[in-house]
Amino acid sequence: MNFDWHELHTNEFEENLKFYTSTFAVNVRKLRGRNGKRYALLTRVGEPMPSSGIVESDVNQGWKSFIKVINVDLAKQKAIRNGAMEVESYDIPRVGSVCELVEPSGSKVSFIQYDPR
């Protein structure tokens, strides 16, 4: 199991962006997120790829982690067979496919399958 991506969902986008960029050595690339919300990719200074993101969001405040899978549909089917319930599935252009579930204990879990590059 590989927790591969982390996002901070917040309704205090600029304040959180300022905190993390002032506290850690990261570069920022701002983008338009899903549903027109603001999104920022955070890349550690000296690293080639982003390691996390900050998402403007009115719901589900806090950090969210994604488990990297080879096939999101198969991982989702297996999780559902083992008692999970699907919340939402969606594609992120130029990134990949995501499935959000609630596992049997009630905790949320998200799978991500990256598009081939």
Q: Any overview of this molecule?
A:
The chain contains 2 helices and 8 strands; from the N terminus they run βαββββαβββ. A hairpin with a 5-residue loop joins β2 and β3. The chain folds into 2 domains: about 60 residues, Signal recognition particle alu RNA binding heterodimer, srp9/1 (2-Layer Sandwich), CATH 3.30.720; about 50 residues, 2,3-Dihydroxybiphenyl 1,2-Dioxygenase, domain 1, CATH 3.10.180.10. It has about 120 residues and is of the alpha+beta class. The two termini are about 20 Å apart. The model has no long low-confidence stretch (mean pLDDT about 90). The protein has an 8-stranded mixed β-sheet, covered by helices on one side.
How do you describe this structure in short?
With 117 residues, the protein is of the alpha+beta class. The chain has helices at 13-23, 72-81; strands at 3-10, 26-32, 38-44, 52-56, 62-68, 85-92, 96-102, 108-114.
For the record, the CATH class of the largest domain is Alpha Beta
Largest sheet: 8 strands, mixed
Strand arrangement, largest sheet?
Answer: 2-3-4-1-5-8-7-6
Q: How much is the average pLDDT?
A: 92
Radius of gyration over alpha carbons?
15 Å
Low-confidence stretches: none
What is the general shape? globular
Question: How much helicity do the residues have?
Answer: 10-25%
Number of helices: 2
CATH topology of the largest domain: Signal recognition particle alu RNA binding heterodimer, srp9/1
Protein name: VOC family protein
Organism: Shewanella maritima
InterPro entries: Glyas_Bleomycin-R_OHBP_Dase (IPR029068)
